[in-house]
Design brief:
- With about 140 residues, the chain is mainly alpha-helical.
- The protein has four helices and no strands.
Length: about 140
Amino acid sequence: MFFVIVGVLIIALNLAGIGPIGAWTWEISGDLWKFCVPFGLAALWWFWTDKSGLDKRREMAKMEARKDNRRRENLANLGLDLRSSAKDKRKASSMKAAREREIERVEGKREKIRQKNRDSILSGFDSQSADHGGGARDDAKR
């Protein structure tokens, strides 16, 4: 890609008439070969990378990196990332502590409500047994 960009830049400079490149001619017997060299080098580069397997190795490395990133993100989202940084671990532990405090607060409120209900039910039974139980015994004694 670099050689193609250089070739396009040379053509643009020639058409704009900038610097010594602006004086080059497009004649076959003149400076035409100077315009073709970057494109020829680009073609050679692409041929060599295809034959050597460089492109395939790069593509495989990119796919492997994407797979590793996706795996890391999924593990982090599940809370199973064992290779996370110390900052992430501190954040996770503080979130866990906050969650536990919230659970304790809610359970404390629930326990108070349960105790209040238990006390009101037991006091209702005590008052009923005092009213009915004592009266029934008194009737039997008579």
